[in-house]
Amino acid sequence: MSALSLLGQRQQSLLTTLLHHREGLTIEELSSRLAISRNAVNQHLASLGESGFTQSTLLESTGGRPSRVYTLTPSGLELFQRQYALLAKLLLAWTNQHMGEQALESCLTDLGQQMASEYESRLAKHASQAGKLREVAAILSELGYDAHVVQTPEQRLEIIANNCVFQALAQQCEGFCTLDLSFLAALLKAKIEHKECIVRNGNRCCFRIADSAN
Questions:
Q1: pLDDT (tens digit per residue) in 103-118
Q2: Contacts made by residues 38-43, CB under 8 angstroms, sequence distance 24+
Q3: Which of 69, 60, 61, 56 has the alpha carbon at shortest distance from 30?
Q4: What is the CATH topology of the domain spanning 84-209?
Q5: Judging by beta carbons within 10 Å of its beta carbon (0-12, 13-18, 19+), is residue 23 exposed, middle or buried?
Q6: pTM for the model
Q7: Cβ contact 87:75 at 8 Å
Q8: 6-35 pLDDT, tens per residue?
Q9: Where are the domains of the chain?
Q10: CATH architecture of 4-77
Q11: N or C: which end of the chain has fewer CB within 10 A?
């Protein structure tokens, strides 16, 4: 189910109308095209604006008062169907075919490290390993992994992720989990064990810092 489909029918129609008129439309023009009152258009625009889906701009007029036109924001445009997953699959297949598994693994490792560099400052606030792990779990949840930290009967801390945000890509490429492992290793400055994997028929993904002996 798309995010657009979760909105009311009138709001979907309004957003679609703005998609078809990227130069922007006034309230009067929207009212005419949607066959609803100006007041109703105002109410919908207020709600959509608060959600960050629409924006307004004043256009200077040579013959009278400036007019306010409404357009979609980047977030509003993202409500409509995109094919990022398809592009990612094609790029992954091309890289694997033309550059080989080793080059792909190196690429995924580098990407994981680049991702980690965006969040390293947040871990610097924590002195304990437990604090760092909980911060990493929070970061993963922000990225869509639905993650949390658990303590095992052996008093080991593990990060549990209930969602694999790259599942379709990981199913296509067996080594894709390198990205997650590189990301976590760079954040925690440690080798990471992948104890359970959703793609490998696990019920969840489970990560923990490897024993120093390993």
A1: 889 999 999 999 999 9
A2: 40/10, 41/14
A3: 69
A4: Muramoyl-pentapeptide Carboxypeptidase; domain 2 (3.30.1380)
A5: exposed
A6: 0.71
A7: no
A8: 899 999 999 999 999 999 999 999 999 999
A9: 4-77, 84-209
A10: Orthogonal Bundle (1.10)
A11: N
Pure H helices in the chain = 9-20, 27-34, 38-50, 74-77, 84-99, 101-117, 120-123, 129-142, 167-172, 178-188
Q: Which residue has the tokens 């024993």?
A: 211
Q: Is 166 left (phi over 0), alpha (psi -120 to 50) or beta?
A: alpha
Q: Find tokens 């959600």 and name the residue.
A: 51
Q: How far apart are CA 172 and CA 174, in angstroms?
A: 7
Structure tokens at 117: 């560099």
Contact between 192 and 185 (Cβ < 8 Å): yes
Backbone torsion region of residue 13, taken as left when φ is above 0, otherwise alpha when ψ lies between -120 and 50, otherwise beta: alpha
Given this chain, do its domains 4-77 and 84-209 carry the same CATH topology?
no
Amino acid at 34: L
Question: In the block, which residue shows the tokens 């590189």?
Answer: 182
